[in-house]
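Table 4 source record.
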Amino acid sequence: MAMSSVEAGPAAGAPCGAPSAAVALFRSLGDPARLAILRRLAEGEAKVVDLVGCVGLAQSTVSAHLSCLRDCGLVDYRPQGRASLYFLARPELLDLLASAEQLLAATGEAVDLCPTYGTATLSTPK
């Protein structure tokens, strides 16, 4: 991934910190609902009601996630009658999601078992 040093300053004062735009991108992808929405939109356009059924969240919550993803430039919409059809705004997202699937397949359960970010950590109260 080519990242220019102009677009990001050092993270926490470190000279080799992650670019802030990349951090924001991965944070936007790090929410389970937003990732589920993006994965569904990778299959094709969808209305909010379709996404509600897919992710199992309230319409207002799905709309808030879509707003976040629109603000990030990752999704867009087009009107269709009184509804809106949402779609991936950047085709590069398809490549990113496919690469993530390949990486997860290659690492097996290592990421899922990670003591910091794995699912066991997420379900264990602190």
